[in-house]
Structures are given as C-alpha cells and as structure tokens.
C-alpha cells in the first residue's frame, strides 16, 4: 500500500513521512526533495526562475508517476499538490491519504522564519487565505491526524493504528 501525507505547509508531512517510512521499512518519497533532485534546483529557485505554474506541472507529472509504481511507499506531498488539477482525487484512488492537521497560528509559527517556502513571502494574511481555500481539499483525505497537539512520533502511532484496522 502507498500512504500519502497531505496538509498545509508546516503541518509535518516531511517530518512524519520520514519517521513513518522508517517504521514501515518502505521507501519515502518527499515530492519537494524529488523535484529538487531531478531539476538540480531548490524550490525557491524553481519558483523564481520558472514560475509557480511550471512547479505545479512538475508536481502533477511526479505524483502520477509515483502512484503508478507498484511498490509500497510513503509519499510526503508538497502543501499545494493536492489542491491542483485532480491530484487529490488521484491520491485517494491510489493511496491511503492522511491529512496532517494543525491550527493556522501553529503552522505560521513553524513556517514564517523558513526561507525555503517561497509562498511565505506573501505574508501572514494571504497565507491564511490560502490555508482556508485549501482546507476542503485536504479534508477529503481518508484519515485526519492532529499535528499541533501530537509529537511526530505520536502522529506515526496514530497512523499505524489506523492502518492495523484496514
Ligand atoms: N508533530 C509535530 N510537532 C511539533 N513540531 C513539528 C511536528 N511536525 C513537524 N514539526 C516541525 O514543523 C516544521 C515543519 O515540518 P515539516 O515536516 O517540514 O512540514 P511540511 O513538510 O508539512 O511543510 C519543522 O520544523 C518540524 O520540526
Ligand atoms: O504549499 C505550497 O504551495 C508549497 C509547499 C511546500 O511544501 P511543504 O508543504 O512541505 O512546505 C513546497 O511544495 C512549495 O514551497 C509550495
Ligand atoms: Mg515538506
């Protein structure tokens, strides 16, 4: 089975994904890291030189490819990925989707100082609007786990216990 983590920037997709893949002993693919590896550019560099639309196309091609592979994996998606094209539908068809949920103030605290997320430059209020607009996409996931009150390890435990009921 594939497990795909979705949620807003700073919700812990990369952190929880790494731990979860180690627990399950399956490969981890972080879509941002994979795009950086394949293009030889950082995410801020891609946004600056090629534009966001180009980045969204790369995400789309990558997620289609990853979901068509037969092997088990944990996929940590970028925060915008499920909100473009029909990516969320595709994720739900081909993977067990988990929404890592957190209060906006907590998310903002985690991301506001980080220079690796170009959208943070929009400022707090526009990022809050983005968060509200994206929430309905994330809410279509099969499982929701709160990452503002749970440690990354506790989030992994919750996901594993849900999987054991499947
Ligand atoms: N469950 C959690 N509890 C506390 N801090 C967390 C948790 N998950 C992630 N973090 C912290 O939040 C920041 C963003 O995490 P990251 O995994 O990069 O999020 P995402 O990939 O969803 O943008 C990191 O500094 C990380 O250490
Ligand atoms: O929310 C977004 O649109 C983005 C989230 C980032 O990933 P994280 O959610 O892992 O920060 C990264 O894909 C890029 O900066 C755009
Ligand atoms: Mg990430």
Automatic annotation (TrEMBL):
Residues involved in substrate binding: 32, 56, 79, 134
Substrates-to-products reaction catalysed: shikimate + ATP = 3-phosphoshikimate + ADP + H(+)
InterPro entries: P-loop_NTPase, Shikimate/glucono_kinase, Shikimate_kinase/TSH1
Annotated EC: 2.7.1.71
Cofactor note: Binds 1 Mg(2+) ion per subunit.
UniProt-listed GO biological process terms: amino acid biosynthetic process; aromatic amino acid family biosynthetic process; chorismate biosynthetic process
Any GO CC annotation of this UniProt entry: cytosol
Stored Gene3D superfamilies: P-loop containing nucleotide triphosphate hydrolases (3.40.50.300)
Keyword vocabulary terms for this entry: Amino-acid biosynthesis, Aromatic amino acid biosynthesis, ATP-binding, Cytoplasm, Kinase, Magnesium, Metal-binding, Nucleotide-binding, Transferase
GO MF annotation: an example: magnesium ion binding
CDD domains in the cross-refs: SK (cd00464)
Predominant location category: cytoplasm
SUPFAM superfamilies named among the record's database cross-references: P-loop containing nucleoside triphosphate hydrolases (SSF52540)
Oxidoreductase as UniProt keyword: no
Places the protein is found: Cytoplasm
Biological or metabolic pathway of the protein: Metabolic intermediate biosynthesis; chorismate biosynthesis; chorismate from D-erythrose 4-phosphate and phosphoenolpyruvate: step 5/7
Purpose of the protein: Catalyzes the specific phosphorylation of the 3-hydroxyl group of shikimic acid using ATP as a cosubstrate.
HAMAP family, A to Z: Shikimate_kinase (MF_00109)
Known partners and oligomeric status: Monomer.
Listed PANTHER family: SHIKIMATE KINASE, SHIKIMATE KINASE 1, CHLOROPLASTIC
Protein name: Shikimate kinase
Organism: Phorcysia thermohydrogeniphila
């Amino acid at each position: 089975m594939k497990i795909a983590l979705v949620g807003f920037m700073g919700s812990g997709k990369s952190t929880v994904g790494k731990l979860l893949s180690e627990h399950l002993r399956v490969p981890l693919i972080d879509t941002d890291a994979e795009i950086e590896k394949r293009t030889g550019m950082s995410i801020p560099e891609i946004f600056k030189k090629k534009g966001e639309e180009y980045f969204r196309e790369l995400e789309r091609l990558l997620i289609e490819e990853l979901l068509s592979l037969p092997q088990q994996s944990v996929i940590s998606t970028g925060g915008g990925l499920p909100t473009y094209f029909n990516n969320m539908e595709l994720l739900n068809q081909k993977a067990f989707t988990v929404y890592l949920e957190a209060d906006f103030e907590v998310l903002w605290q985690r991301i506001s100082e980080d220079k690796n997320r170009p959208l943070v430059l929009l400022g707090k209020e526009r990022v809050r609007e983005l968060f509200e607009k994206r929430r309905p996409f994330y809410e279509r996931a099969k499982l929701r786990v709160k990452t503002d009150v749970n440690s990354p390890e506790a989030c992994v435990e919750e996901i594993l216990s849900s999987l054991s009921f499947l």
